[in-house]
Queue: 2 jobs
Job 1
Amino acid sequence: MPAQIIDGTKIAENIKKQILQEVEMLKQQFNLKPTVVTIAVGENPATKVYINNQCKICDELGIEVKLLQLDQNVTQKDVEQTIQQLNEDKNVHGIMLNLPLPQQLNSRKLQNLISPKKDVEGVTAENLGKLFYAEVTPVVAPCTALAVIYCLKDTGVELKGKETVIVGHSEIVGKPVLLMLLSSLFASVTPTVCHIATKNLSEHTKRAEILIVAVGKPNLVTADMVKEEVIVIDVGINRVKVLDENGKEVIDDKTGKPKTKIVGDVDFENVSKKASFITPVPGGVGSVTTCILAKNLVNLVKLQLGIEVDGYKIFS
Ligand code: NAD
C-alpha cells in the first residue's frame, strides 16, 4: 500500500490559525503588534528568498518584519552594537540573523549576543541548552527541527522506543532533533545519528522505523535502503534539472534554459511505495518551518510580557 502523505501545508494551516488568535489577543489586550527584525549582511540570493518567505507569512499573520540590511563589509563591532541596540529596543520582540555571514564576521559569537528572550530562531546557547534537559517544554527552538517533530506527531503514531535514524548532524536540524526526541525520560525514541563519516549508511537506515533525512543530496536514500512501513521525514531541499524519459534535460520554452524542480534527499517515488508515512518535498517539512518562526515570536512576546506561555510539548 502506498504511504500516507504527511501534509505540511495542512499542519501549517493549523499552526497559523492558533497564531492568528494569539496575535489578535496581543492586539486587544496589550495594543501590541509582534515585531521581528531580520538582519541581512551583504547580498545573498538564498537569504533573499528566505526573507521574502518570512515577510509573506508574517504579513498574513499580522506580524511586522523589519529588514535591517547591512553592508557586505560591515565590521564585527558594528554588528555587535546593532544587536545590542535591538536587544534594548522595547518595540522589537524578536531578532534573527540570516546566515551565512561574510568571512570577517563571527556568526556564533553574534548569534549568542542576541538576548535569549528575543532569540526567535532558538539558536543561542541558552535556548539550545534548554533542549538538553529531560521533560522540557521549550518556548523557542530551532524552526526546522521543530517542524520535523510536528510532522512526526501528525502521524499519530506513538514515538516511544521507536528505532529512529537521523541522517545529518547539523546544528540547525540533526542535533536539535536528536535532543528533542530524547527529551522524555520515559517516552523517548531509540536514536542513531548518521553523518558524512558514517561507514555504511544503509546498514543503519534499513533498521529504522522512523527515518529523518537532512543532508542536501538528492536521492541519497533509495527504496532498497529502507524497510517496509518506515515513517520518513525528508528535510532536504535540492534544486535539480528536470529530465525526460530518456534522461535528457527538458528545456523551458520561455527562458531557453533547462527546467528545474525542488526535490528532497529521498527517492520519493519508490520509497513511498514501502513507507507507511512520508513527507513530500515541497509541501512537507519546509511548509511547517516558516510558521514555527512566527510561533516562536508570539511565544517570546508572551515571555516578555510576563504572561503564561505554552511551551512545545514533544511527547504529548
Ligand atoms: P548541513 O550542510 O549543515 O549538514 C549536512 C549534514 O549531512 C551533515 O551532518 C553531514 O555530515 C551530513 N552528510 C553529508 N553527506 C552525507 C552522506 N553522504 N551521508 C550521510 N550524511 C551526510 O545542512 P543543513 O543545514 O542541516 O541542511 C540539510 C538539508 O536540509 C539541506 O538540503 C537544506 O536545504 C535543507 N533544509 C531544509 C529546511 C526546511 O525547512 N525543510 C530548513 C533548513 C535546511
Job 2
Amino acid sequence: MVVSSAPGKVYLFGEHAVVYGEPAVPCAIERRARVTVEKRDDDRLRVHAEDLSLDGFTVEYSSESEETPDVNVSESLVAAGVGYIDAAVEQARDAADAPEVGFDITVESKIPLGAGLGSSAAVVCAGIDAATRELGVELTSEEIAERAYRAELEVQDGEASRADTFCSATGGAVRVEGDDCRSIDAPDLPFVIGFDGGAGDTGQLVAGVRALREEYDFAADTVASIGDIVRSGEEALADGDLEELGRLMNFNHGLLEALGVSSRSLDNMVWAARDADALGAKLTGAGGGGCIVALDESDGTETALKFTPGCEAAFRAGLDTDGVRVEEV
Ligand code: PMV
C-alpha cells in the first residue's frame, strides 16, 4: 500500500490573461489531496472517496458496478471525480507497463471541488504517484506533471492548461507562459482563502473576456495590463516584497472585475479582506464565483471573512513548497 499527497493552488496573478499568451503565477497551497493505493489480485478498480467537498461525502464506487453511488453531492461531481481517478490509473499502468493491474483506491481531499483551487490536478498527481510507486516505479515530479496533464486532457476533452498539474506536482510558485512552466523563487506567502460555496462556468467566463477583448481595444489593453502586473509581481516575489505583492493583487482584481469575471460574493470577500487590513486580495481562477485569495500574516482576514455574507468557508493555507510527495509506504 502507498499513500501520496499533492497540493491545490491559487492564482497569485494572471488568470484569463494567460489565455492570450501573457504569463501567470499560480502558487501551490497548504491544502492537500491524499490518495491511498493498494494493488488488487484482479484487474478491477474500486474507489472510495472522502471529504471531497468541504461538507464531506463518502462514495463507494466500483467502475464495474451498475449501482448509483449513494452520496450527498451531485452525481456529475462524483462521475467527474471518478473520471480523474480512472485517467490517473491509466497513466500509472502505462508508466509501469502493467495494463491489467487493478487497485483499491481511497481519496481524501481538503480542497473544495470545482472552486478553482486545482482539486482535480491534486488528486491526479497524488494518484499517479501512489499507483506507480505501488507498482515499483518512481517518477520524477516533471514526469508526474506531464502524465497528470495528459490525464486532465483526456477527462476534459482536450481542454486543459498545464498550470494546475505542474504547480501541484512541483509545489511552490510557478511561472506559466503558454506551454512553458517553470518554478520560481518566492518568500513565505501567508494566503487566506475565502470560498463562496459556488463555482463559475470557466468556458463561459473565458468566452466573455474573449468577446470583450474583440469588441473594445481598451479591453485588450486591460488584458495586456494584467500581463504587466504579472511581470511586476515576479519582481516583487524575487524581492520578497509582500506589501508590493498585495498592491499588485488589488490592481489585478480591479482589472478582472473590469473584464466582468468577478461577482458580488467575490467582491464582498475581497472588500472584507481589505477592510481587515489584508495586504491585498483578489479572486482566483476563472471567477464568477468560487474563491478569493488574500495576503495577511495576522488572523484579521480569516476572522472577517467568516462574518462576511456570502462567504461559506474561510481558511489559511500558506504557500506549499512541497509538490507531490509520498506519505506512507
Ligand atoms: O478556475 P481555474 O483554476 O480552472 O483557472 C482558470 C484560469 C483561466 O485563465 C481563466 C482559464 C485557463 O484555462 O487558463
